[in-house]
Specification:
With about 350 residues, the protein is an alpha/beta fold. The strands form two sheets. Strands 1-2-4-3-7-8-9-10 form an eight-stranded mixed beta sheet, sandwiched between helices. Helix 11 links the parallel strand 9 and strand 10.
């Protein structure tokens, strides 16, 4: 294998998407966003053929060009996806790579006054635009979504909220079971804020933006928990309510309940009909995941079982949270097979 990028058999269209709903967002983040559309080999050769579509979303702090990053001795996901379709390993699909980055690191693919209308952007702007310009099978039964980490979270909740748009989902190490994956970081945040920032998130952000980001102990936890609060518990005017006392780490029950309402594990029962209507559900996670998202994956599977959804691909495999790009084609193949005519 060559240690540099390879020639693609399919085609990438890289466009700049102009969003109306992201204009004027509180953070002042760009409303013009990069969008990648992958067309499988043979797309130009069969002008009457239509294809399923799979939307690909990123984890926390992800921005679109990072998909081309590579680990040593490995191909990146765009290359792996192209190899999958070029080899005939899966029915051909159109893949759509969507950017939902924010200056806090991510949007959780939700509408929030603290970040912007990223759920509406994805479902009501990007999807119709793709269907109008490419030969998709423009129906929820032929449209899926996949992602890892926060992208895995988005892949779980978006079809629950909009089963009219998506008929299949795949989640790798998705954020779930919030008391296990998020709550332990509250104590870490409280200590770092006390010791380094006089108990102030504002001081943290001022320092964070004045130096190489992620260069100090506690950066990851502070960014993550603040970003989650911006997504899960922002007031209508954009004020961000934290779910813990920054002096002690003690949970603030009312705000924490707002977070729990967005936990995919807890959302299952209230969106049972949507989940029962899915043509494909794929769930996996590394057994050594540093955020214990393997426990969240198992809890999500069990909740699906309770509502009668048992036709689920589920696997816990030997890995941590990072460097699992080799799993992504497995999910794409599963979705492609289930969403194809």
């Amino acid at each position: 294998m060559l240690p540099w990028s390879v020639e693609m058999r399919g085609r990438f269209d890289e466009v700049t998407f102009q969003s109306e709903v992201l204009k004027g967002n509180l953070l002042g983040d760009p409303w013009e966003r990069p969008l990648w559309v992958y067309l499988p080999p043979g797309y130009e050769d069969e002008p009457d053929r239509r294809y399923p579509s799979i939307y690909v979303i990123q984890g926390m702090t992800g921005q679109l060009d990072m998909w081309r990053n590579r680990s040593a001795f490995r191909r990146n996901f765009p290359e792996l996806a192209d190899e999958l379709f070029a080899s005939g390993g899966a029915p051909p699909c159109i893949l759509v790579w969507v950017d939902c980055w924010t200056s806090y690191g991510g949007s959780q693919f939700l509408d929030s006054p603290g970040t912007g209308q990223y759920h509406t952007y994805l479902c009501d702007e990007v999807v119709p635009w793709i269907d109008s310009r490419y030969r998709t099978l423009a129906d929820r039964g032929h449209r899926g979504i996949t992602g890892k980490s926060s992208g895995g979270y988005g892949a779980m909740v978006t079809p629950m909220l909009r089963p009219d748009v998506f008929g299949g989902l795949a989640t790798h190490s998705g954020d779930a079971l919030f008391e296990v994956c998020y709550q332990p970081e509250f104590r870490e945040c409280a200590r770092v804020l006390r010791d380094d920032y006089e108990g102030s998130f504002q001081r943290f952000w001022e320092d964070f933006r004045s130096r190489p980001p992620m260069s100090k102990k506690g950066d990851g936890e502070l960014v993550n928990e603040y970003a989650m609060a911006a997504c899960y518990s922002a007031d209508p005017d954009g004020t961000i309510q934290l779910p813990f006392d920054i002096s002690t780490g003690k949970v603030i029950p009312g705000v924490w309940e707002r977070w729990l309402a967005w936990d995919p594990v807890r959302m299952v029962a209230g969106h049972a009909d949507a989940l029962r209507s899915m043509r494909a559900i794929y769930v996996d996670c590394g057994k050594r995941d540093e955020y214990f998202l393997d426990l969240g994956a198992e809890a999500f599977r069990r909740e699906l079982e309770k509502i009668g959804v048992t036709d689920v691909f589920f696997e816990l495999f030997d890995a941590g949270h990072g460097s699992i790009e080799y799993r992504y084609p497995l999910a794409v193949k599963y979705l492609a097979e289930r969403l194809s005519p």
